[in-house]
Amino acid sequence: MALLNLYNCLNTYLVIGAMLFSFGIYGLVSRRTVIGMLIASELVLSGASMNFMAFNRFLAPDPAIGQIFTLFIMAIAAAEAAIAVSIVISVYRNYKTIDTEDIVDMHG
Q: Please, how many CA atoms are within 13 Å of residue 76, restricted to the half-sphere of its CB?
C-alpha cells in the first residue's frame, strides 16, 4: 500500500527529476550526432522543470511561481529546438552529415 502514496512525497519527484537530468547529461556527453544531443538537452530541461514543479507543489506558499518558471523553461526548450533543427539542416546541407566528428573543420 505504500506504493500508492508515492505521488504525495517530494522525494519521489526529486528522484525522477534527478534521473531525467542525469540521463540528459549522459546523453550530451556520449552522443555523437547533433540530433541525439538535442534530445538529451531536452531531457535536461525536463528534469529541471520537474524539480521546479515538485518544489512548487510541496514547499511554495504561492503556487504560481513554480508554474511560471516551468512555462519559461518550456518556451526556452521550444525556441532551442527550433533553432537547433535549423542549424542541423544547414550543417547537413553543407557537410552531408550530422556527425559531430565530421564537422570539426567549421570556422566561426
A: 13
- What's the mean pLDDT when you consider all of the chain? 85
2: its cell numbers: 505504500
CATH code where residue 51 lies: 1.10.287.3510
Mean local confidence (pLDDT), 4-12: 81
With H, G, I as helix, E, B as strand and everything else as coil, classify residue 34. helix
Tally of domains in the chain: 1
Q: In this structure, what is the dihedral angle of CA atoms 32, 35, 40, 43, given to the nearest 10 degrees?
A: -170
Q: Are 17 and 48 in contact (CB under 8 A)?
A: yes
| Lookup: cell for 37 | 544531443
The residue type at 59: L
- Give percent above pLDDT 90 in the chain: 30
Query: Is residue 21 pLDDT above 90, yes or no?
Result: yes
Report residue 107's pLDDT band, with 50, 70 and 90 as the boundaries.
low
Residue type for position 1: M
Domain range spanning residue 22?
7-95
